[in-house]
Amino acid sequence: MFTGKFWIRWALLLVFVSAALQGAFSQATASDTQADRIAKLEQAVADAKGSADNSWMLVSSALVLMMTGPGLALFYGGLVRKKNVLATMMQSFALMALVTVLWALIGYSLSFGSGNSFIGSLSHLFLRGVGAQPEAAYAATIPQQTFMVYQLMFAIITPALITGAFAERMKFSAMVLFMVLWSVLVYDPMAHMVWGKGGLLNAALGGHFPTLDFAGGTVVHVTSGVSALVCALYLGKRLGYPQEPMPPHSVVLSFIGACLLWVGWFGFNAGSALSAGSLATSAFVATHFGAAAAVVGWVGAEWLCNGKPSALGAISGAVAGLVAITPAAGFVSPMSALCIGLIAGVVCYLMVARVKARLGYDDSLDAFGVHGVGGTVGALLTGVFATSIVNPIFKDAQGNSLPSGLLDGNAGQLLNQFVGVAIAWGLAVVGTIVILKLVDLTVGLRVSSDHEVQGLDLSQHGEEGYYFEVSA
Amino acid sequence: MTKVEAVIQTSKLEAVKIALHDIGVEGMTVLEARGHGRQKGHTEFYRGREYTVDLLPKIKLEMVLADDMVERTVDAIMGAARTGQIGDGKIFLSRVDEAIRIRNQERGIAAL
Known about the structure:
The complex is a heterodimer. By secondary structure, chain A is mainly α.
């Protein structure tokens, strides 16, 4: 029964049927091949690019958060006296929590919602509409939620910088109230003006006075630095300042903090490219070069003036350089970054070592000297050194790139930079005075003399930073 | 019984301890202290401002000895701690009324 003929017939039938079926299927995939495959390929490429950009942006967000905690917390913590170390660190940490909640509720909406020239809107209240879809106006290849959380880290560190000015004498409760108001009334409008849709100073989105500010020279450093000065003047000097020497209780902690700031700043500046391509690289390199040159500038100036280069001076120099390169990072060449850093290092050193003493105010941790002055210098130098070769931010109607800064052939940009800086100064001064007055009238700004002498760790937080117990 | 208090340079502690052990002094208390006599401090810089640190780190040794040990002890300390410069420190001698060993309540010389 199962002869060779039987098997051959069934084998032939199997081959015939499968061939027919194959033919049928290749008829369908033949039309698939052209348009569908290209579409699928385009999607895959976009997904891959989006993945690369998103992973860089999430890492950058983490790096910027690290700048506040523990970067700034350690940097400032080491600079104060032992009895105030926890209180100082707590101020930065509290902001990590406080500003996050504010940002989620209304901060992001006020900063980045489409409102008018000065402020955003309530369209993203409670982060409504902020999800996986990119917001093309800001960053077309990453989820808007990534963009939101990245910007949040900036909103956190900006007020944290101000704490350096009123260190060792501000009530914790007053600080909390002050920061809630400052974040909403000063930071959000400034962020909107420079980076938000329709913002007055937005260079990328056709603002009326396009201010080149890549990562926040005006938004972060000028506003916080100038506000710091106002706070220092309003609150007055620490008891015993300047007669009593108040050296840092641990430059070691400050050193660690400064190094974390330097590394974290790559997220701050290079992440502001909002993508993982060559612009991020350019900003990364400029950031690093700016920091390095500023160390050389500050240390060199200090060595000449005092005869010895100090570690504290070196780390302060690095921070000054990083501040100054912040607005310029994605617009300038590496050599220009070296120039900007060098200038910032020297200028900030003189500010902190000479001018401050002469003027007599107690900006305890040099928030104004480094961030206010460094940010101003950097923002203005951005107008000098910005070049379309690095970043063609300005384009004409046909899409050809226009010169960016002074050395590029666009002298007018310096004027725009002045406007942006002036607005930052103005908003910071007016906003801070009003808020300080309000907080002083309600909660009271400054701790009592007894509490100041006892130290804020004990008086504000009931803790001691270091408890090397006497008994075993 | 005599109490010997010696304020010395921090860098001389090892040498003084060895010298004291060599002559048979078995009990001592060592404290970290700050102070100065006629020694000027040093200047440090903080944010461009120069300030003088005039409370300098010192080591204070305290020991209570039988009177016949005192002269040898003073000589041993002096020999080990002296550099010849201002800041070497001082030795103070004072009378002690009583000494008591906590473990077994021995009193007087036996407690030393």
